[in-house]
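FORM 12-B: Structure-to-Sequence Request
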């Protein structure tokens, strides 16, 4: 039997039923809930042939390790489909838009970044294997289903991966408040946005591997944005640039 893990929250469980129903083993639902959301979940589970158990709140809390389960938890295959960078780039029918996270350790931030990646059509999220959070139940819950729609590619050497992206004619843009203004920067074409960890920002070697560093202008007293908020702004800017110039042209700065 394959290794399993627990998903919790309606968005995460329904997304798994929609994207990979064969990977869902069992669903547990709070017996005190009978609202439309639960009925929709039960209908989807029945169509997928997944067994559903009605349990009490204590059982759900134990399954979700006291997380905000919303009244539903599911036992699913632990492994996500293995997707490589080559797979993503070869399958893309448009210039790639990638999000690279340099050592994000907060699962809620990674989940929120996945949501932004899904909303703004990023083709993949790239994370380092070490000193970073992986896709776990908390990430999946925070991602509201995006953990099953956006490929997460784990790499052993982030700087080397960034250099490989540049060899593929993908412009690597680091996000940092000290960089050139996002208002002025050309962020169209094939882009990999690189964002640093909470508080620490981009590591030196990562920054040096970027073609350019671009900052989000701020006007208030807060000096920096949460990494997931910054990711959403950067991805939106890239999409907006493509809308203005559908053919997409790489930023003009020479390497």
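FORM 12-B RESPONSE
SEQUENCE OUT:
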């Amino acid at each position: 039997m394959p290794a399993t893990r627990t998903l919790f929250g309606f968005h995460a469980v329904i997304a798994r039923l929609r994207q990979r129903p064969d990977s869902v083993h069992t669903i547990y639902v709070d017996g005190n809930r009978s609202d439309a959301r639960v009925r929709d979940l039960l209908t989807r589970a029945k169509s997928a042939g997944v067994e559903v158990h009605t349990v009490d709140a204590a059982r759900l809390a134990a399954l979700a390790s006291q997380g905000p389960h919303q009244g539903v938890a599911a036992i699913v295959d632990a492994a996500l489909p293995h997707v490589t960078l080559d797979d993503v780039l070869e399958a893309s029918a448009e210039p790639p838009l990638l999000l690279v996270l340099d050592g994000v350790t907060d699962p809620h931030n990674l989940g929120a970044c996945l949501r932004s990646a899904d909303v703004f059509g990023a083709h993949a999220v790239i994370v380092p294997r070490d000193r970073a959070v992986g896709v776990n139940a908390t990430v999946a819950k925070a991602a509201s289903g995006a953990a099953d729609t956006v490929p997460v590619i784990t790499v052993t050497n982030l700087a080397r991966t960034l250099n490989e992206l540049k060899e593929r004619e993908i412009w690597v843009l680091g996000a940092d408040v000290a960089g050139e203004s996002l208002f002025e920067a050309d962020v169209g074409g094939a882009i990999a946005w690189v964002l640093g960890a909470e508080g620490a920002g981009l590591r030196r070697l990562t920054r040096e591997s970027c073609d350019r560093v671009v900052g989000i202008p701020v006007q208030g007293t807060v000096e920096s944005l949460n990494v997931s908020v910054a990711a959403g702004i950067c991805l939106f800017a890239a999409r907006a640039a493509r809308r203005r110039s559908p053919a997409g042209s790489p930023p003009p700065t020479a390497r």
